[in-house]
Every structure is written in structure tokens, then in C-alpha cells.
Specification:
The protein is α/β, with parallel strands linked by helices and about 425 residues long. The protein is built from 14 helices and 18 strands. It has helices at about 30-40, 45-55, 65-75, 110-130, 145-165, 180-190, 200-210, 215-225, 245-255, 285-300, 370-375, 375-380, 385-390, 400-415; strands at about 1-5, 5-15, 15-20, 25-30, 55-60, 80-85, 95, 130-135, 165-170, 190-200, 210, 230-240, 260-270, 300-305, 325, 330-335, 345-350, 355. Helix 4 (about 110-130) runs parallel beside helix 5 (about 145-165). It starts with a strand and ends with a helix.
Amino acid sequence: MKISKYNLFCKFKRNEYILHNMISKETVLLNKKEFKDFKNMSGDSDFCKELLNSGFYIPNNQNEIIRIREENRQACQDYSNLNITLVPTFACNFKCKYCYQNGLDNSIMKDEDIEVFIEFIKRRLSKHKSKSFHLSWFGGEPLLVYDIIYKTNKKILDFCVAKNIEFSSSISTNLSLIDDKKAKLLKDVAVTRIETTLVGNEKTHNDLRVCNSLNSFECTKKGIMIAAKYFTVMVNMNFCKSNFHDIKNFLKHDNTLKQQNIYLNFSEIINYKQNRFQVKQYKNCELKKLKLYCLALKNNWKICDITNFCSESIYCSYYHVNSFSIDNQLNVYKCAERFDENTQIGIIDKHSYDCKYNANFKDLYELEQSCLRCQFLPYCNGGCQVKRQQNIKPCPEELTSVYKYLKLFVRRRANDL
């Protein structure tokens, strides 16, 4: 018996330590004596057996890298779950200054292409005998084409019910167009989660997320309140140097959105080359992000788990053989954050209702030796493939502060109990 190479441990509170194994995904809290016994492998037989069963200790002859790569391969090649992000239009009623989608095709998906998409889904679910399907609606602003969402979900839901396939759906939206009637109908067709964005207080939000005829801040807040009656709502709070303190004040003083099913997420505003508008960024945004998460917990907000401490042996849907993003022209991609010729992997054929892949597309990826040697291999399993293609370091940014994120992970889990 030996100690796993892939344990993370750090002091949590006075005389209390966090122990996490990145392969088994097990997390335990140990007192000072237990932590010492763990490191020295000197605890009693029951203690050692429990740590062995949880993956903190492993048999002497176990090769952990073989296990990590095999579990990752199985997760990547799993057809039992189908995950699709669909963009019915890139059009939007907001003109966010930092939006990366400027210049994309704003046309609305044609009715005949919607039918092709639905047939593609039916055939793929049947071919691979998938047990579940999740459809994420993305944009642009998807609720501009609410009728398409409702009718498409209804047809897919009817098919999935008949075939005993679990179906769920989510929408990324600015929520300016939601109302109770629409929300009720969307719930009826399997929408379970809404994702939206705030960027601080009213003045800052309206400045960065511009809507000429509306107070975008009030519209989004009102929409969150409506949506929270029917769905789980994830509110993404985008930050940079200019609005960081506004977000802190929002977390301290706003009580209108502290509901059981509203969760906060924090992400840095990214500067894109195609945008004239550029924000001032922090050199180490992860530390700033951690401060916001900790402040949110301190002020009794619920937060999303944005770590990979509990991930199922796969870092991103890019690697998953049964996950795709599809745009309004039926072009197929692997990443929902980039829609261009360089990231397109194929197109849905209107005659065969199957994906016609580009000649250079591959769905199996080899990792560099540096990844295979890395202590955090089971955490990210290679990191971001898009960054790798751009010759950018693919490692998850949170690894620069992994022990702080581990503490946050434990605090969040305790809050949800």
C-alpha cells in the first residue's frame, strides 16, 4: 500500500485539514492527528482501510496513469448522453460592448433547417441508444425566437418520452423578453435551467450591456425574479477593473435575488481583437474571482461549482464524442465559445440527416508528455483543446490557485447541505 500521487491536501481551519483525491473525487476533513497518521501511514487498520477504499492510499502495484487515461477514454467515448448547444440566431436586442459575437450572421434559423436538426437528433439518439439528451439554447438572444424554442423542444420531448429517453433543456439569455406565460410554457417542454448575466450595479450594467430602448439592468433583474419561480437560474457576473467594486457592493447590499434556486458565477471580461471596446484586466484574475466567491458566500449567496473536483473524468465537452455546438446554418463545432471557419468540424447534411465531418477532424486526442507527468492530470485531463490549437497553454486557470479553490469547494458544499 502507498499514498496516491494525486492527492491534494491543505489546512482548512484550525487543526483541520482537507484531503482530496483527484481520481476518486473523494474529499474528507481530517483533524491534526488523523492528518499526521495519513502522511505517515500510521493510523489504525480501520482508518487505513477507509483511506484505501477512498483512493487516498492505493495498492503498491497500481498504475494510476493507466487508470486515469482509461477512465478518461471511457468518458470521452460515452454515447449514452447526447449534449447539443444550438444557436438559432446570433441576433440580439442588447449591444454588449465586450461581446465576442460581433460580426456573426444574424439571420434566423429556417423552418426547414429546424426540421433537419430535429431529425438529426432523433436519428443520433436512436443510432447510439442514448439514455439522455440535453439541449442548450444559445445566441445571440434565443428568446427573440421563442416560438422556435418551444416548438422544437415540444417535438423532441414527445419523441424522448415515447422512446424512454430523459430530456432536459437550458437557455442562455439576457432575460429581457421573459414573462410568466413564456416561462410556464418553457417549463412544460423540459426547460430546467436559465443562464443570464449581470455586471454590477445599475449604472455599470447599463453602460456595458447596452439596450437602447430599455433599462437593461432592471429588465434582467425582473427576468431573473420571474425565471426563478420556474427554473434553476445561474447568474454569471462578468468583471474587470472598472466594475469589480460595483460587483462587491452588489453582493453586500442586494437582497432581492437571494433565492434558493439562484446561483452566482464569476468570470473575467475578455478582450477580443475584433472589438474596439477594450476593458482593463487584472494580471491575476483568479485571485479576484476567489475574492468574489468568498464574499458571495459570506453574504449568504449560493454559488456555482466551477471547479473540476467532482468532474466525471472529462474536462470539457469538446472531448466528448457526443457533444456538439450547432449554429443557425447547421454548421457543427466542438466549442460553444468560438463559431468560425477555424473551429468548424462539419455540417449537418440535409439529405442523410447526419454530420458530414471535415476531412481533418478527429475525435481522439493524444496528450503531451508534460500533461502525462503533471500532478493535476486527473483534474483537467489535458485542459482546453482550443487553447492548445492556438499554441496557448491549455491548463485551467484555476490551477494557479488550486488550494484556495479546494477550500472554496468545501465551503460551498457545506453551505448546500
